[in-house]
Specification:
Strand content: 25-35%
Order of helices and strands: EEEHEEEHEHHHEHEHEEHH
Shape: globular
Largest sheet: 6 strands, mixed
Strand order of the largest sheet: 7-8-9-3-10-11
Distance between the termini: 39 Å
């Protein structure tokens, strides 16, 4: 069952002279872990931003569970759905940023409960129960009253993951979740994502962690120059890529 589909997505910046995404199509099945790899500037983060409604596509279609967030008009331009439909679509996914994006003036617990109360309509008791269970799961059960500035980078990212999970998304997107962390803290976050994969959480992960992509992802997508150059089962793409551009990228990465 497809949870998310992007079809023929195009996106340009700088008065349409910089073509960042050039006719990208991608779908994600329920329970699948997809890793997106590629050089800087290849369009990976822009693709994620289009998928999560943070950046408008110029052309293309975006669909979650059969609900279209955007479709092409007769001129081939992306036209977005009404506010009610987009609100419904936003409830389908969660997004974890590389820089955590926690509210600094909120406690950890308030960071996790506010959206549950105001967006999902949960009672404060229910929201706190869900938040505390997720903090326990992240090994942060005793940090509910702390503020983000009192936490390490790895702890802040675990709070950010818990906050995304608190909204019960069907699919979770990660935009280079370890790039702001030192190697020791990176291991903490990869362990959490690995545990989510073991629970069959549907995830799309933009990452520079090649060994992690090979080990945890079901499918790897290699992007370069705004196109998908190669995609396939993780170990096949990482160990025996078909395309020379993929081989070159992986060789450079292993040096």
């Amino acid at each position: 069952m497809k949870i998310m589909e992007l079809t023929h997505v195009k996106k340009s910046f700088a008065d349409a002279t910089l073509h960042v995404l050039k006719d990208i199509s991608l779908s994600v099945e329920k329970g699948e872990v997809v890793a997106i790899i590629g050089p800087s500037g290849s369009g990976k983060s822009t693709l994620l931003r289009c998928a999560t409604l943070l950046t408008d596509m110029d052309a293309g279609e975006l669909c979650y569970d059969g609900i279209y967030a955007a479709r092409n008009d007769e001129n081939g331009r992306a036209v977005y759905a009404d506010k009610a439909t987009l609100k419904q679509v936003r409830g389908k996914f969660g997004l974890v940023f590389q820089n955590f994006n926690l509210f600094p003036h909120y406690s950890v617990l308030k960071n996790l409960t506010d959206a549950q109360i105001h967006v999902l309509g949960r009672s404060r008791e229910e929201a706190e129960r869900r938040a505390l269970a997720l903090l326990d799961k992240m090994g942060l059960g005793d940090r509910g009253n702390a503020y983000p500035c009192e936490l390490s980078g790895g702890q802040q990212q675990r709070v950010a993951i818990a906050r995304a999970l608190a909204m019960d998304p069907e699919i979770l997107f990660f935009d280079e979740p370890t790039s702001a962390l030192d190697p020791e803290l990176t291991g903490e976050i990869l362990k959490v994502i690995r545990a989510l994969a073991d629970e069959h959480m549907t995830m799309v992960i933009v990452t520079h962690e090649m060994a992690f992509a090979r080990e945890v992802a079901d499918r790897v997508i290699f992007m370069s120059g705004g196109v998908i150059v190669e995609e396939g089962p993780a170990r096949q793409v990482m160990d025996d890529p078909k395309e020379e551009r993929t081989r070159q990228f992986l060789r450079n990465y292993q040096r």
